[in-house]
Amino acid sequence: MKRLGLTETASCQCGAEEQTPFHIMQNCLNLEEARQTYWPTETSFKDKLWGSKEDLRRTVQFAAASRLHV
Ligand SMILES: [Zn+2]
Questions:
Q1: What separation in Å is there between the alpha carbon of 70 and the centre of ligand 1?
Q2: How far is the CA of 54 from the centre of ligand 1 (A)?
Q3: Which terminus of the chain has fewer Cβ atoms in its 10 Å neighbourhood, N or C?
Q4: From the CA of 23, how far away is ligand 1's center (Å)?
């Protein structure tokens, strides 16, 4: 894992214990900027995954952007 450049644990680079989808989308400090860009208003985790077509479009864009930071 380490040789492949992957982290040893599932903890997040921001220091959180678990890098879960919920954490990435709602809590991760490292992704705060990207989150503000795609969701300037508070959006629930549920809406991000099962919301309108517009919500889902933002989720896809956020996922693409966050991969650059993670
Ligand atoms: Zn994090």
A1: 9
A2: 25
A3: N
A4: 6
Q: Is the pLDDT of residue 59 over 70?
A: yes
Helices and strands (DSSP H and E) totals, the chain:
4, 0
> Tokens for 23?
């954490």
**The pLDDT of residue 10:** 76
* 17-30 confidence digits (pLDDT tens): 888 989 999 999 99
Residues whose Cβ atom is located within 5 A of ion ligand 1 = 12, 14, 16, 28
Q: Which residues of 49-61 are buried (b: 16+ CB within 10 A; e: fewer)?
A: eebeeebeebbee
CA of 31 to the centre of ligand 1 (A): 7
